[in-house]
Amino acid sequence: MIRDITIGQYYAADSPIHRLDARVKIVVTLVYMVSLFTFQDFAGYAAAILFFGIVLALSKVPFSYIMRGLKPVLFILLLTGMLNLFWTPGKEIFAWGVVAVTWEGIRKMIYITLRLALLILGASIMTFTTTPNQLTAGLERLLRPLKIFRVPVHEVAMMMSIALRFIPILVEETDRIMKAQAARGADFESGNAFQRMKSMLPVLVPLFVSAIRRAGELALAMDSRCYHGGEGRTKMYPLRYRGRDIFGYLCCLVYIAALAVTVRISPF
Amino acid sequence: MSIRLENVFYIYGKGTKEETCALKKINLTIEKNEFVGIIGHTGSGKSTLLRLLNGLERATEGSVYYNGKNIYDKDFSMKTLRGKVGLVFQYPEHQLFEETVIKDVQFGPANMGMTPLETELFAFQALKDVGIGEELIDVSPFLLSGGQKRRVALAGVLAMKPEVLALDEPVAGLDPEGKENIFALLKRLQKERDLTILFVSHSMEDIAEYADRVIVMNQGEIVLDGEPHKVFRYQKELGQIGLDVPVSAKIANSLREKGFAIPGDCITVDETADAVIRWYQDRKRGAV
Q1: CB of A34 within 8 Å of any CB in chain B?
Q2: Do residue B94 and residue A177 have CB atoms under 8 angstroms apart?
Q3: Beta carbons of A157 and A140 less than 8 angstroms apart
Q4: So where are chain B's domains?
Q5: Which of A160, A234, B163, B230 is the most exposed place for a label (fewest CB within 10 A)?
Q6: Cβ neighbours for B182, distance < 8 A, ≥ 6 positions apart
Q7: What kind and span of H or E run contains B53?
Q8: Which segments of A11-41 does DSSP mark as H helices, in order?
Q9: How far is A29 from chain B (nearest CA, A)?
């Protein structure tokens, strides 16, 4: 259920990937995600999977752990896979009514599903190895140039880190309230969709009340510690590039170069 | 009414690296009309133990019997059990959700499948029991004071007509008066309605004052179980697991060590005060 969502979860470990500067991880992840759309053949996928595999092995995040991140999107993966399998024109293997399975379809199904899975896995490995705080600090620094256009970069980053910080608290709270209402005989499982939605009311009302209460308390606590926005605010742990971060960027460049060499880069 | 736990184990996150054993080989029998206090450190398994009693959490190993029936049997109705063993969570006022006090209290009995008439009757009765006046029953529960909210939440469980009331830190965050009110209410329910009451607490004073039986937990195990006067004699053993005896017991103990003739079973304020007065009167009589 809620606990299956792994994006935004952190896996504590001491690994070369964990130690990288958050900016490196954000940039490389973005580059990697874009790179997934630049090829359409076997060699490209091999390179992408290899790169992901090396990062995963270095990060010490268990394989089963990262695969759990695919569970919530399993349905979408299957659906797109099926659509591609049955509705791709080409050399037919067998046809059945309007649907037909073709060699091209099978190939496309595997590629599209792989691409979607790698997109999600690539993003999850970043959040698994970077604490939300590092992530927002990195993002804040990367987006700093936008300040010229009067984008409140610091405030947006602060809102993000607060939102991320509250996810586990609210998940736990939901769990507690559901159990407390179950102790009063509440039933969340039976009934049709409408009844089940209605049965969530005794959970949602207290959850919202508590979220608002917590927000108020947090604002007060920040205020009493003289928080006044990003103006003139310095960092306790300023981001600084080190040798390993340069090496990280270099590895990413090597990956791109490898892609360019092994793959005829085609627009589609 | 009786609850029996046999060789109960409870393991969190089985198979992951965060696997922790919250309860280890618990054997326990709760008899009708007992007033049981459970103490122990944070993470000693107290709350998990309470949640096992009404089937909210399922024991990883072992069995729980309610009136001699195994609650994990397929034909055992968990819903009925939830009504029979009323579980009151910590800060129960955080679970209020209805528009009016009376509607919120009716939530439990209505879920139990009682008729609208019974539901209304039991809700009124429960509110009367906890001392919420008629002028408040149509008010939004969010407008009440902290102590009132807690009593309304308690009424929400009482309205299901439970035989057992299990409360997780029922007086946390209340002022002394609110605290006394809640305990007086629980004592009254035990006597007048024949309820069995279990409560988790961090306060040795509350346990000494109100409980007829204390269960001391440490790292998922029951280390001491018995009458408060007996359990609190183990001051040293309790100290070793980071727990304490009531302040009054400490005062009585140190007076005795200094050579004052104070008996060894003083655990409440009244008992210690009486013992000191008796000692003083004896001395005066001796002096005369």
Answers
A1: no
A2: yes
A3: yes
A4: 1-76+163-177+187-243, 246-288
A5: A234
A6: B150, B151, B154, B170, B171, B174
A7: helix B46-53
A8: 16-19, 22-35
A9: 28
CA distance A182 to chain B (A): 8
- From the centroid of its chain, how far is CA A192? 32
- Strand partners for A83: none
Residue B93 sits at φ, ψ, to 5 deg, of -65, -15
Say if the Cβ atoms of A177 and B107 lie within 8 Å: no
CA pair distance A117, B57, nearest whole angstrom: 35
Sheet strands (E) in chain B: 2-12, 20-31, 35-40, 61-66, 69-70, 85-88, 164-168, 196-200, 213-218, 221-226
- Other beta carbons within 10 Å of A162: 15
Question: What is the ipTM, given to two decimal places?
Answer: 0.87
- Say yes or no: A212 contacts chain B, CB-CB below 8 A: no
Q: pLDDT tens digits for chain B (288 residues)?
A: 899 999 999 998 776 667 888 999 999 999 999 999 999 988 888 999 999 999 999 999 999 999 999 999 988 988 899 999 999 999 998 899 999 999 999 999 999 999 999 999 999 999 999 999 999 999 999 999 988 999 999 999 999 999 999 999 999 888 888 899 999 999 999 999 899 999 999 999 999 999 999 999 999 999 999 999 999 988 889 999 989 899 999 899 889 889 888 887 889 999 999 999 999 998 888 765
Q: What is the DSSP string of B166-217?
A: EEESTTTT--HHHHHHHHHHHHHHHHHS--EEEEE-S-HHHHHHH-SEEEEE
Superfamily of domain B1-76+163-177+187-243 in CATH is P-loop containing nucleotide triphosphate hydrolases (3.40.50.300)
Please indicate whether, in this complex, the C-beta atoms of B79 and A185 are within 8 angstroms of each other.
Answer: yes
Enumerate residues 6+ apart whose C-beta is below 8 A from B250. Answer: B235, B244
Do A185 and B95 count as a contact with CB atoms less than 8 A apart? no
Q: How many CB pairs under 8 A join A and B?
A: 53
CB contact under 8 A, B157 and A184: yes
DSSP conformation class of A6: -
